[in-house]
Fold each of these.
Amino acid sequence: MSEEILKRRKILIVDDEERMIRFIRLNLEHDGFIVAEAFNGKQALQRLRDSTPDLILLDVMMPDLDGFEVLEMIREITNVPVIMLTAKGEEEDRVHGLEKGADDYITKPFSTKILLARIRTVLRRKHPDHDDNGSIIQIRELVINPQRHEVLVSGKKVELTSTEFRLLHFLTRRPGWVFTRAQLVEAAHGINYPVTDRSIDFQIVGLRKKLGPLGKYIETIRGVGYRFQEGSNLKQ
C-alpha cells in the first residue's frame, strides 16, 4: 500500500483520557490520517455502527466497558484491525488481547514513531497493494480465501481472529514445511513484535479448536515449532 493511500485511512481512537486522545490525534493528523474519537466503549461501538474506520486504536483501562470487552463486541460486528493501547505490559494481558482478536498491542508510554510504524504495518498487512498470496487454498475439507478473509471447513464458515487467519494462511501456503515459533510470530505480527513464543502456542490451540477435526493437521514439531501436514491443492 502506498504512503499516499495510507495517509487517507481513517483511524478511530478509543480512550477515556482526553489528553491522550488529543496527543494521538495531533500526531496522526500531522501524518495525514483521518481521525475519529470515542471516550468510552459505548461511544466506540456507536461510531463503528455509523461509519467503519480502517483501524481502531483501543485503550484497555476504561470505565464501564474495558478494552477487552469492547474488542469482543467489535469482533461481533466487523473484522476491522484493532491495536490495543494500555499501560499493562504483562505477557498474560498481551496474550489475552490477541486471543480476543487484537491485531497488535502497544504498551504506554510509547513513542510517536513506534505508534505510526505499527499502524502502517497493520494497515499494509490488512490492505496490501498487490496480493501475491491471494490464491484460494484447498487442503482436504479446508478452503481458505485470502481476498475474502474467509475460511470454510466442510463448507461451513469458521470465524477466526485476524491473527489466527494469518497463522493458518502462512502454514497452509507451505504445507509440510516446519516453521519456528519466531517465524510464526513474525508472520502474524511483523518483525520485532514483543510477544514470547508461548503466545503462539495459545494461538495454535485456539486455531485447532476452531478447525475441529482438521485441527489435528497442524502438527507440533517438538523443540522446533509447527507445520501443516502435506497434501494440498492450490486452486488458481
Amino acid sequence: MKKFALLFFTALTMLNCKNKEEEKVSQEIETKEKASTSLDLGCYIFDDGKNKISLEITDIGVEIKGNLIYAFAEKDKNSGNFSGKLNDGILIGKYTFQSEGKESVREVAFKVEGDKLIEGYGDLNEDGTAFKDASNLNFTSKMPLTKTDCSKK
C-alpha cells in the first residue's frame, strides 16, 4: 500500500510539473503572437520611388482609424480615411477616399507582421466595394508598409 501511495504521489507531482511547463510554453507562444500582431499609432509606408502607400494610424480604440493614401505611378492619387478593426492579426475596414473628384468607399485589409503591414487581396462583390469572403484573403503583396517615423512621410 505504501508503494502504491508513493507511486501515486510521484506520478501526480510529475503530471503537475508537466502541466506547468506546458502552460509556460503556451504563455510564451501567446506573448509572441501578441507582439507580432500588435498595431501602434503612427505611420506605415511603402515607397519604392514610383509607388507609394501610406497609412497613418491616428486612433486605436474600439475602431482603428487613420489616413490612407495610394499614389501609384501613372495612376490618379487617392487619399482618404480608414476605419476598421484588428482581429487575429488582420486589420480590415472601410477606406473612404477621393479620386478624380468623386468620393468612393471600398474595403481594404492588412495583415500585421511585426512592424509591417501586408495588404490583402481577394474576390470582390459585384460593385467592387467589399470582399466576397474576408476570411479567404491572399496576403502576398510585394509592397509591404513598414512602420516609419511620420516626419518622413
Amino acid sequence: MSTALFEIKDLHVEVDGKKVLKGVNLRVNRGEVHAVMGRNGTGKTTLSYTLMGHPKYTVTQGSILLDGEDITHLKPEERARKRLFLAFQYPVAIPGVSVASFLRASLKAVRASEIDPKNFRSLIKTELKSLGIPENFMTRSLNEGFSGGEKKRLETLQLRLLEPKMAVLDETDSGLDIDALKSVSENLENYRSKERGMLVITHYQRMLNYIKPDYVHVFGSGQVLESGGPDLALKLEAQGYDWVKGA
C-alpha cells in the first residue's frame, strides 16, 4: 500500500484532563477530499486544533502522519512549514497588523526565507484578482471589522499563497451567507489537485454542494462512527444523526 498523504492513527486526546478524542482513524490519499460531519460537542474542533498542534490539546495515544512522517509532537509552525494548513472556524482579529503584513510574515515563516517585495506584490495582485478581492483589502487591519465572508475569503487567500499539501477546514461555512458560501467554497474546490488533500469539517451538507468530497465521515463521541461516499452527506441532511449509533 502506498504512503498516504495524511493519516490519523488511533488518536486519543485530552483537554484539561478530560478525554475528548477516543481513537480517531482516518486516511487521506493524494487528490482526495474528505468531509467530517457531526453534531456540536462531538470533538470536531478538538480534532482540527490537535492536527495543527495547539498546546491545549494533549495527545495521550496514537499518531498523526504527513507524507509518512510522524508530526504528532511538532509545534504548529513546524507543521505549517511541512505544508499543513488549518482554516479556523472563527478567525481572530489583530488590530494594527495589516493584511499585507500578516500574509508576508506567514509566507516568510512557512518558506523559512524572506520574499522579495516586488515578487510579493505581484503574487498578491494575481491572487486578489483570481479571488475577486479589492486591492485596498491589503491595508486593512487583520480581520478587524471584517464580515464573515471577508474573513473566510482572507483565509482562502492565505491558503492559496502558502500552497499547503494538506488543508484542514474547520467549519469554514460558519457565518457565511448564501453568496459568500458559494464564492468561498468554489475557490476552495478550485484549489484541489492530484497532489493535495483536504479535510472539510462541517455541520451541514450545503458546503459540500460546492466542495465535492470523495469520502464522508460521521463524527461522534470523539471518533469516526460511519464512513461512506458523498451520498452519506445527503442521507445526514435528510435524516439527521439519530440513525447513527453513538452520534
